[in-house]
Design goal:
Elements (H helix, E strand, L loop, with lengths): L2 H5 L2 H21 L5 H15 L4 H12 L2 H6 L2 H6 L1 H6 L1 H26 L3 H7 L6 H11 L3 H25 L5 H23 L1 H30 L1
């Protein structure tokens, strides 16, 4: 089998992803602050560009791995159920915090693009970046943004949030699990939540709840924005 035939097999995308992520895990043991997904994605992008391999060839195998994200996300419900009592006791404060955090994310993104003189398309693509990718992409599509750009910005938001978010919160004096979990879940969605689950089940469960709440709240907050754009 020739090289061109091999890369057009689904097994190529699967094998490349597994090998890259395994290597990223080894590198992360040396530099703990780096997220394996950041290393893995960077390596795959560089390899595809260097070897002139079309993304569509990698995507055939990559899509098969994407199917596993569903069960992995559902698995977050287990620690969430275990700490449901704590969430109920602080439910009002959590929802207020998630709402304020979601608004801050939207407004800060709009202000940033406005100050840099960015176009309307970029503005609408960036505003929903703090929620999980499926929700952010649909919001961007309905607003008239660029869903592909929104997807990239959403992943980058989650990656950088997972790598520096907890350290930044600790430096600012927020050291309790409730504050860290809610903040990371609201700002860094699933990628930040996955990072917290590895460090603390409690923080991961709080982050998972905040991630889900932020998705719902952000979608509602964008309704008047949609009406205004269509008005």
């Amino acid at each position: 089998m020739s090289f061109s035939e091999w890369v057009n097999q689904p097994l190529f995308g699967i094998a490349l992803s597994v090998v890259a992520y395994t290597g990223a895990q080894l590198i992360q043991q040396r530099w703990r602050w780096l997220h394996p997904l950041f290393i893995c994605s960077g390596f795959i992008i560089i390899l595809l560009l260097a070897c002139h391999i079309p993304y569509s060839a990698y995507k055939m195998g990559g899509d098969m791995l994407t199917l596993l994200l569903g069960p992995a996300t559902v698995a977050l419900g287990v620690p969430l159920y275990k700490h449901a009592g704590l969430i109920k006791r602080h439910l009002a404060g959590i929802l207020v915090s998630v709402t304020v955090g979601s608004l801050t994310g939207m407004i800060s993104a709009a202000a940033f693009i406005g100050l840099l003189g960015g176009s309307r398309d970029i503005l609408l693509s960036m505003m929903p970046k703090s929620v999980s990718s499926p929700i952010a992409i649909e919001i961007s599509r309905h607003l008239g943004g660029l869903p592909e750009l929104t997807s990239v910005l959403t992943v980058l938001t989650g990656l950088f949030g997972s790598m520096i978010g907890k350290q930044l919160l600790t430096w600012l004096g927020f050291k309790d699990s409730l504050s860290i979990g809610i903040a990371l879940g609201t700002a860094a969605h699933g990628i930040g939540t996955a990072k917290l689950v590895k460090d603390s089940e409690l923080q991961g469960s709080l982050s998972g709840f905040a991630m889900g709440a932020a998705g719902i709240i952000t979608s509602v907050l964008f309704i008047p924005v949609y009406w205004w754009l269509r008005g």
